[in-house]
């Protein structure tokens, strides 16, 4: 109200009441903040490591700080999720606690997240010049619901100690069979139950794949280890495979103690994996996530590269992440990753996305020298004892897997 404006006699008392309500509102917000900080301090004080030192888990910066609205599409979508899932924090730290919600919060896509999001045409300035795979990803990046075509709901009835979850493509029959005969052999290994599943999407004629459905149905009936969803299995949809697997795990295999997730062209020393895991303490096992960790990385801006990401889509650096060729984590953490994944916008590079989800949990992957997702030096690739010391190495053909596995299991091989 302007100072010289005449007062309406009907609102004189109402003006005083407005001031009172404003003060009460400010007081309530301050009290809520105090309570929240006290709870956080209490939780962090009661979190201690094995040596008795108290640990304070500091949430990521985005959790605490409401940044200026980004010009990049993915970042804006993530800012929206941060606001939605942290309304008290964001409203309390805004410059005016009683201001209306920011207008961009309402700039959502279609009500059905699996319908094309045509905002991208206007909100991404170079959309029309992006590769087709990128355009497709952006149009449907909010869709996470796809039906299961092939399921194995009872594969974890005998609670596995280790679940081997292998990303594969429909035509890769030879890779899957080589894994079944070597490092992915299901059953009991070193007195621990091991279960293997292969994760598949759908291959389409538009992507120049032949129709192999009849052969896949036979394979599924014979081995009972295939899980397939009805979505287009492409490089940019590997993130979709990640979140769909976590959902499947939460429903059908939530008591598995550990998961090794990798590509169908990695070679895994399963014996060494089991040997590492069986001696872990409960504290170490809870947040376990190890692999070949990549740090201080960011998006490639060269459109000719496989991992190209334009500035119009993403800005900033990547959190630490483990190379997607293969990594090892606990079943407990898998359930938490599934829950937190709803708070992280889908990103077209799956291992980076998993790193983002870990970061959202206040965690980071741990580097282990036994994971070689970028292979080993060529001069060592034919040395049997090298594979005895490794956990996982990327880039092996089915024929090479069948050659390497005896080097792992034959006791007469002396690697002293």
Brief descriptors of the model:
single chain, 416 residues, alpha/beta, Spore Coat Polysaccharide Biosynthesis Protein SpsA, Chain A, globular
Task: Give a description of the structure.
- The chain has 416 residues and is of the alpha/beta class.
- It folds into three domains: 24-106, no CATH class; 111-143, no CATH class; 148-409, Alpha-Beta Complex (Spore Coat Polysaccharide Biosynthesis Protein SpsA, Chain A), CATH 3.90.550.
- The protein contains 15 helices and twelve strands.
- Strands 1, 2, 3, 4, 5, 6, 8, 9 and 10 form a nine-stranded mixed beta sheet that branches. It has a three-stranded mixed beta sheet with strand order 7-12-11, with no helix packed on it.
- Strand 3 (187-189) and strand 4 form a beta hairpin.
- The longest helix is centred in the N-terminal third of the chain and has 34 residues, at 12-45.
- The protein is globular and about 70 Å long.
Q: Into how many domains do the coordinates divide? A: 3
Percent helix = 25-40%
Largest sheet: 9 strands, mixed
How far do the termini sit from each other?
86 Å
Mean of pLDDT: 83
Number of helices: 15
Pfam family, one: Galactosyl_T
Protein name: Hexosyltransferase
GO molecular function: N-acetyllactosaminide beta-1,3-N-acetylglucosaminyltransferase activity
Cofactor: Mn(2+)
């Amino acid at each position: 109200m302007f100072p010289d404006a005449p007062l309406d006699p009907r609102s004189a008392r109402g003006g005083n009441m407005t001031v009172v309500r404003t003060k009460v509102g400010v007081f309530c917000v301050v009290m809520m903040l105090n309570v929240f900080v006290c709870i956080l301090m209490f939780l962090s004080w009661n979190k201690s490591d094995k040596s008795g030192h108290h640990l304070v888990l500091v949430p990521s910066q985005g959790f605490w700080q409401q940044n200026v609205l980004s010009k990049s599409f993915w970042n804006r979508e993530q800012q929206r999720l941060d606001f939605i899932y942290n309304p008290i924090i964001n409203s309390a730290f805004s410059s005016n606690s009683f201001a209306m919600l920011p207008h961009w919060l309402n700039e959502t896509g279609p009500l059905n997240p699996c319908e094309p999001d045509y905002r991208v045409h206007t909100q991404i300035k170079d959309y029309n010049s992006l590769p087709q795979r990128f355009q497709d990803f952006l149009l449907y990046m909010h869709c996470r619901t796809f039906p299961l075509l092939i399921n194995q709901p009872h594969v974890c009835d005998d609670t596995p100690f280790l679940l081997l979850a292998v990303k594969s493509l429909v035509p890769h029959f030879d890779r899957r069979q080589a894994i079944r005969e070597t490092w992915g052999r299901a059953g009991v290994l070193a007195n621990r139950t091991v279960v293997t599943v292969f994760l598949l999407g759908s291959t389409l004629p538009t992507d120049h794949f032949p129709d192999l459905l009849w052969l896949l149905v036979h394979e599924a009936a014979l081995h009972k280890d295939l899980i397939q969803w009805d979505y287009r299995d492409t490089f940019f949809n590997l993130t979709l495979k990640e979140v769909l697997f976590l959902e499947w795990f939460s429903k059908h295999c939530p008591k598995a103690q550990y998961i090794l997730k990798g590509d169908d062209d990695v070679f895994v020393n399963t014996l060494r994996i089991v040997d590492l895991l069986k001696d872990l303490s409960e504290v170490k096992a809870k947040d376990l996530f190890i692999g070949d960790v990549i740090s201080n990385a960011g998006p490639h801006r060269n459109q000719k590269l496989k991992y190209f990401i334009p500035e119009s889509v993403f800005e900033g650096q990547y959190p630490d992440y483990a190379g997607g060729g293969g990594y090892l984590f606990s079943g407990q953490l898998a359930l938490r990753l599934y829950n937190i994944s709803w708070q992280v916008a889908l990103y077209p590079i799956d291992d980076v996305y998993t790193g983002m989800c870990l970061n959202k949990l206040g965690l980071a992957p741990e580097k282990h020298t036994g994971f070689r997702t970028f292979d080993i030096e060529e001069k060592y690739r034919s040395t049997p004892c090298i594979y005895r010391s490794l956990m996982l190495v990327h880039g092996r053909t089915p024929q090479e897997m069948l050659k390497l596995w005896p080097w792992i299991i034959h006791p007469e091989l002396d690697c002293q």
